[in-house]
Specification:
The chain is of the alpha/beta class and 204 residues long. The protein has one domain: Nucleotidyltransferase, domain 5 (2-Layer Sandwich), CATH 3.30.420. Helices cover 42% and strands 17% of the residues. It has a 6-stranded mixed beta sheet with strand order 1-4-3-2-5-6, sandwiched between helices. Helix 2 crosses helix 7 and helix 4 crosses helix 6. The longest helix is centred in the last third of the chain and has 22 residues.
């Protein structure tokens, strides 16, 4: 595994292929209170690219271009939050997307454990450490432990997606999953507009 740390933006000319795993780190879980600090990406090749954002400007045209690129599938785990953060701070709608948490809930109906740690253990045979999950991602210098944690969240998403795709196909739920993924940026926008705790499809 190689971790590439980039200050401010992805480097010019970096090609992460047709499917790129994406995750982000923030200073908390509230959209308008907590800033977006770090975005990590992987092409599924064992390398991770960690972008430490400039929170004063969020000037990152290469990253924004990738997130909005219609020819690049962005793979997330619980993409609803990350996509909302990208809409809010980077001003881009991330499409097309795939969410391994949604796929897990549609395919792994025999369990209620759909967190990344549990999904990665079963689907990729990897035991992820979550020790740095609540660390200070706004620090000027990220520690080696933080970088390793950030990388681990994207390095295995391609493998997880492959397993989940097979399960979805076996259970004839591929099209249902795809429809959910297509709606995900809209769900994130609803979060930003104030419907984050409201199911607008519910009867009451």
């Amino acid at each position: 595994m190689t971790i590439h740390l980039h200050k401010g933006d992805l480097p010019d000319g970096l090609d992460l292929g047709p499917e790129v795993a994406v995750d982000s780190e923030t200073l908390g879980l509230r959209f308008r209170r907590d800033p977006l600090c770090v975005v990590q990406l992987s092409a599924g090749d064992g390398d991770a690219h960690v972008v430490q954002l400039d929170r004063q400007t969020y000037d990152c045209p290469n990253l924004k271009r990738l997130l909005a690129d219609p020819g690049s599938l962005k793979i997330f785990h619980f993409g609803r939050f990350d996509i909302g953060m990208f809409q809010l701070h980077l001003g881009v709608e991330t499409r097309p997307v795939y969410c391994t948490k949604i796929a897990s809930k549609l395919a792994r109906t025999y369990t209620d454990r759909h967190g990344l740690k549990d999904v990665a253990r079963e689907m990729a045979g990897v035991d992820l450490s979550k020790a740095q999950q609540s660390s200070d991602w706004g620090a000027e210098t990220l520690s080696p432990e933080q970088l390793a944690y950030a990388a681990s969240d994207v390095l295995h998403l391609h493998a997880i997606k492959r397993r989940l795709d097979m399960m979805l196909a076996r259970q004839n739920r591929t099209e249902l999953a795809r429809a959910c993924f297509d709606f995900l940026p809209v769900r994130s926008r609803l979060d930003l507009e104030g419907w984050d705790e409201v199911d607008i499809f519910a009867h009451s």
